[in-house]
Every structure is written in structure tokens, then in C-alpha cells.
Amino acid sequence: MNIVFRLAWRNLWRHPRRTWLTTGAMVFSNILLVFMISLQFGMYGLMIDNALQVFTGHVQVQASGYNEDKKMRQTVPDIIPLANSIRTTLNSETVAARGWAFALASSEDRSFGIGIYGVEPEFEAQVSNIPGLVSDGRYLETDNAAEIVVGSVLARNLHVKVGDELTLLGSGLDGSFAAAVVNIVGIFDSGVNDIDRNIAEIPLRLFQETFFMEGGGHQIVVVGDGLEAVPAIRSTVQSMLPDDSDLVVLDWDEIQPGLKQAIQADMSSSFFMYLVLVILVSFSVLNTQLMSVLERTREFGIVMALGLRPGRLGRLVLLETAMMGLIGAILGAAAGGLLTSWFTSHGLAFPGMDEMAARFNLPARMYPEVNVLTLSAGPAVVFVFTMLAAIYPALRLRWQNPVDAMRVA
Amino acid sequence: MSAVRCVDLCKTYRQGDQDIKALDHVSIDIAKGQFVCLSAPSGGGKTTLLNAIGGLDIPDSGEVYIAGERIDNLNKGELADIRLKQIGFVFQAYNLIPVLSARENVEFVMQVQGVPSAERIKKSTAILKEVGLEGLEDRRPAEMSGGQQQRVAVARAVASRPALVLADEPTANLDSKTADELMALFTELNEHHNTTFVIATHDQRVMTYAGRLIRMLDGRIVDDINQRAA
Question: Cβ separation of A311 and B77 shorter than 8 Å?
Fold first, then answer.
């Protein structure tokens, strides 16, 4: 082994307790970082899934410009056959067509302006969690039955219950008067006030008849096996559309840009906290290495007198720090990985989480997501900051005079 | 060519309000293979002169030449290279590296010089045997007596066969028997390898081993005696 390596390694263990305390701080922060970053990634996955499974899905086919400005006339023509075709091509049931319109919903007592989705009852449950959130009655069953499911707040505001009738009044695709009388068959409770107060769903064929859609709709929603499948789905669906088509294929990020921004904002605030943690660890390393350099001043004077250049001595200090940093990184990543893996398989729950999760149709436990990035990002940053913290003690040796150094007791 | 040549060296230290002249226009010329003792009372300037010769300290004025090369105007890195390649040091307090064994201490300079492993082992084994430390190669400094540590320091200083060995009070911490053994070793190395020795001391017995004795007082050379001739 090279003598500088040997010297660095042995110097490291001159004061095992001090070395272990500093390394321990690194290990602890690395465990914390691995766990927290993994948990964050797991939560982001859950957030995205949760947000996308309400209405958005992973990919949507829409008329060009519809996403920016939802106008009734921007339709996907022959939407049901196109949705069937996409189902066949993707060999997947997680494809559903929808229409969307504003209407005035009136009960015997009251009226409210609401948004109405026309959905394919058979397939909607594959792309949205609303059918699973019906807390009273049932979800839509028949393609063109005069049925409606409404949000719980809307039902309360309209003073209606399952079995009551609602009158829908709106404007059709051609601008004509659109009206329908529907029976309330179910009331859903998503836990999101805006949805529960403003949204109702009716069968797509009824929607098309009521709003004179002429077989059209406004969006075909596709859900894949996770976010990583999105590019392939998008490409496949895109290839099915004629070149001169006015339709576009959008992914979830384009449909809901706010979601990614919210995640990025959360990541920024978290990373600021992580940075504080890493800087604290760095100061601990700086303290250790500075003490270590100061107490060896005389020894450094000797090796300089023997002919070691100050630059090489500085590299010795950096090497010692790198060894300590690597031990911290390896042990921290390993322990953090083991701990996080346990929670990945068993889940993480805290008191009261069951009820809250059930309310939002979420799993009762959070599952951290362990991957190469979550395992390595934290320890890598700690390692880099550790090395930065060693620069000053290493540079200090450059200014040291051998004679002065050897005079130090 | 001289092994060491100093021309008009001056060095002043500030101690409180006082300026102390550690070297006051000192000029000496030491030929290759000479065994020289610098003798002075404490504060007489011998260690300062030794440090200037070894490039450990830079004089305020004057010139220092090692094997014909001027060194007082070199930077820290270049001075380190001169020390590495041409000078061996023996210090009063042994100054071994505590985390390295006797053999590793001896090999240290050679390894920094880039001497191949096999050659290093061969040379360190031979020199440790020569200084009487056979069997103690793997002991660390803390596991050895003062005399043994000083032998390791001598072995380290001469292992890479430097042209010049500078020793600062090498016998100060040794008993008389060990001191005699050390000086006998220095003499042997001087005679067998033609190594130039410059030893700073105020030990009278050490001075008897020297071929040339330079006496200093208050930073000036007051006497320069060729003892062989005498």
C-alpha cells in the first residue's frame, strides 16, 4: 500500500472516538437523507397517482387548444370508436372517453351551476377513482340511462338524495338549448371540496344526446402502468391519429403543470432543510480536521523537513477526509437503504392516518421509494461538502513553515 | 565543489522589544565528506545556521549553496525537493512519525522519492541492521527506547544515501553509552560512504569525533578548527 494511503489511514484511527463521532454524524445524516428522500419520492409518486387518478390519467387525447381554453365546440369526433380503437391497440381496458359541459342543475328547491362529465360507465372506473368514492347509492351502470352521480357537497346544497330527480339545463354543441331530467343514483365523496361541490357525472351517450355532440366528446383518458410507461403510450396513441388530425396527445405534466410545480416547490423547501443538515455535518468535519491538523503541526513540520512538499501534505489531509467521508457514505447508504427498504415493504403509518387515508381513497400507509438516486444523492452531497470542509485545513499546511511547525510542542 | 557554502548569512529574530541576531554575517565553506561540528552555547546561532543550510529557514540576507546550487532563493516546494534528494536530517527529539513502524519510518523518505518497493525493503533492512535494530523493524516509536528511536532517525536520515546529513543536538537525549554508539555510527557512515556531516552540538564528547570544529557565539563564527590537522 502506498505510504501516503497508509499514513492517512493510520492517522484516521489515532483518535478512534473522534473519528467515529465525526463519521457517526455523517452516517446519521446519510441515513436521514436516504430515508427522507426515499419517503419524499414515494409521497410524490402517491401525490401524482392520487391527483391523476381523479380525472387526468396519464395521457389524454383532446382537440388542439382544448386544454388551454375548454370550449364546447373543440371536440374529439367519433370519440367512442376512437377510444375502442386505442383500447385494442394498447390491449388495455384503462382507456375511457369523456365529454364535458357546464349546466345548471336544479332540484325542487335550488339550482347550481356545475360541471358535468359524460363518462363511459364501463371504463371510467379503470381511469378514475370517482366511481370508487360513491358513498351513497351506486355508480353509473348503463351507457345511456338517465342517471347521474353527484358530489356530496352538491347534493347537500341542492337538498337532494339518492332517488331524487335533477333537471340539467345547458347549451348544446350547436348553441341550442340542452336539457335533461336525470335520476340521482349515487353520491360520491372525494374529500376534495371543489370536486364534491361542482362535479356530476352522467353516461357519455346521454351526454352526447343531451348536448347534441353528434358522437363527439372532449377527452380520451389513458392510464398506463406507472409514469415510466407514459412516453411509450403517448407515442403509440399519437401514431394512431391521422396526420391531418386536429387532435393532440398530451401527457399528465402538460395537462396539469401545477402538479409538477407543487412537487418542485416542495423539493426546494426540503432540500433547503437538507442543506442545513449537510452544512452542520460539514462544520463537524471542519472542526475535526482542523483539530487533527493543528495537533499534528509538529509532525507535519517533520515530514516537510524530510522533503514532503506542502501540497502533498494537503493531499494527505484531503485523503484522510475522503476516507472518513467514504466510510460515512457507505455505512450511511447501507444502513439508510436497509431501514428504508424495511419501510418500503412494510409501509409507514402514524396514528390517525388510516381514517385520513380512507377519506381520500389513499393507501393507509406510505411507502418510501428506494432507488439508486435516493440511495446515493444524500451521501454524495454529504461527501462533497465533507471534502469542501477539508480544504481549509489542507490549505493551511501550504502556509506552514517547517521550522515554526517543528517548534510546536 | 563544496558540499555546503554559506556567504554572509544574516538572520534576526524579534523577541519582545529586542532584535536578536541569530546569524551575523556568517560565511562558511564545507567540503564534501567533511565531518563538521557547530558548537555554541544556547542561542549562539548553531541551529539557525543548520536550518538555513537545510533550507528549513530562509536567511534575511546572504546566500546558501548546496552542492553548488543556490537554495536561499527557492520556493517551499523546491526547497522540499532539495531536502528530499540531497539532505538527511537527525533531530534532537528524534521526530519519528508515530503511526509508522521503524521500517516504515526509514522507508518514508525513499517512498516519497519514488524508490521501488523491493529496493526500499532491501535498503531499510540493511540500514536497520547496521544501526543495530535488527528484529525491531515492526515496532512503532512508542514501543522503543530513546536510543533506539534516535537510531531509527539516523537510519531514516542516511537510508537514501544523502550527500549531506544535518544533525541538531543528536545526542542531547541519549545516555553516554548510546551517544558514543551513535557517534561511532556517524563516523562509520562518514568514512565508508563519504557522507558530509554537519552536527550542531554543545556536547564536548561529540566534538571530539569531528574533523572540523566551528565555534559560534552570538550568531558569529569565532573559531574554525581543523581537528584532524591539530
Answer: yes
